[in-house]
Design brief:
The chain is of the alpha+beta class. 55% of the residues lie in helices and 20% in strands. The longest helix has 39 residues.
Length: 407
């Protein structure tokens, strides 16, 4: 009986019902669309960043991340390679060396971050080699060629084809120095990379640093981002070496993670404000609906209807209206997210250039992750139920005689 009464009551005033329904639908599809765009854009940018250089997961010596000393290295032996290959989610991997050094050209000397890489393996893991600005990249890890950040080249006042001297402290404490020919410049969109980065061959770096056969970390490419926790667990179990740590991109790049979290929180706060505003509209609708029926409620109470049944009736009416609005909002939100997923929004003009300058893709994507729809719907439902507490309280405190005399 209560369900039938509630369904009939919400259609007593069609105009008010439709306006409330549209308000709830708007809040729902706005929440779903905005969260979908946020999460979708985060996902595409995270994938772009981890594919660019750091990798999804890194294997390195314990404590190397906080204190990247040259002596915190290890050997990528045959056993370790087999253990890595036995992890099915790992598509490919590449070893690297990292060191600080000094680059000199004529009278100019600048500090540099030296990366020793294997270009053939890097192509299977990362995409930074596609960011060549001028010149080309080397094809062998034994060559005495170097690719530097475009800003570093400008600061050295050198040009492609010039020779530089690279100085650094070796693994054994000796001073290593080698002559390299600049064959290209790279632009990654990171001020640190572009102003200090220098890429040389892996074996050449081992020669320069007097650490043959040793590396500082291994970067992995996985099937997808969701596989990171599983790969961390499997690799840690498979390797079983307390001296080595398996770190996710979030641990390797905490600043980038915090930037995303900060933007995510601001987006959630905006959505909460939007939902609260809609909640006041729901409160107004339910309160008006309850107030104009005080005479009816008073008569119902006077002939013996339990007070709680009237409370349940108002709650059911609110739930009916909210669920209808949520259902409509989910349909519209899914349509918008699906359209943006198929047709990503390209950010052009100067704003797009700013995005690219700082390593972000100038594109807005979306997501159809089911959790977006669930959490958004639950949020709107909870806020709607909270908003009807005051009208329910008025009904609960209503006395039969006051209800009958109410005008």
């Amino acid at each position: 009986m209560l369900l039938k009464l509630a369904w009939r009551n919400i259609w007593r005033n069609n105009r008010r019902m439709l306006l409330t329904l549209l308000a709830i639908s708007f809040a729902t599809f706005a929440a779903i669309s905005m969260r979908g765009i946020q999460i979708g854009t985060y996902a595409v940018n995270i994938k772009n960043v981890v594919d660019l250089f750091p990798g999804y997961v890194q294997l390195q010596r314990e404590g190397y991340l906080k204190n990247p000393k040259i002596r915190l290295c290890f050997t990528l032996d045959t056993l370790l390679k087999k253990q890595i290959a036995s992890t099915p989610e790992v598509e490919s991997y590449t070893p690297r060396i990292l060191a600080d050094g000094l680059i000199s050209y004529k009278d100019n000397s600048l500090g540099a971050i030296i990366y020793g890489i294997n270009p053939q393996q890097e192509k299977t893991v990362t995409t930074f080699m596609d960011r060549i600005k001028d010149g080309r990249f080397f094809n062998s890890d034994t060559t005495y060629e170097v690719v530097v950040g475009y800003k570093l080249l400008e600061n050295l006042k050198a040009k492609i084809g010039d020779e530089i001297i690279m100085l650094t402290q070796g693994y054994d404490g000796s001073l290593g120095n080698l002559k390299f020919k600049i064959i290209g410049t790279i632009k990654l969109g990171s001020p640190e990379f572009d102003a200090m980065g220098a890429f040389i061959g892996l074996k050449t770096a081992q020669e320069l640093l007097s650490m043959p056969g040793k590396i500082h970390f291994v970067a992995f490419k996985l099937n997808n981002l969701d596989a990171i926790p599983e790969v961390q667990e499997e690799l840690t179990k498979e390797i079983d070496n307390n001296e080595l740590a398996v770190l996710s991109w979030e641990e390797v790049m905490p600043d980038y993670k915090q930037l995303i979290e900060l933007d995510n929180i601001s987006g959630i706060m905006f959505l909460l404000i939007l939902i609260v505003i809609v909640a006041f509209g729901i409160l107004n609708t339910v309160l008006m609906s309850v107030t104009e029926r005080f005479n009816e409620f008073g008569i119902s109470l006077s002939i013996g209807m339990p007070q709680l049944k009237l409370v349940y009736l108002v709650l059911i009416e609110t739930i009916f209206i909210t669920l209808l609005g949520i259902a409509l909002g989910n349909v519209i939100g899914w349509g918008i997210n699906y359209y943006i997923l198929l047709n990503p929004i390209q950010v052009g003009s100067e704003i797009g250039k700013i995005y690219e300058e700082y390593g972000f893709l100038p594109v807005i994507e979306s997501s159809l992750n089911i959790t977006i729809f669930i959490y958004s719907s639950i949020s709107v439902l909870i806020i709607s139920l909270i908003s009807c507490l005051y009208p329910v309280y008025k009904v609960y405190k209503l006395e039969p005689l006051k209800g009958i005399r109410y005008t």
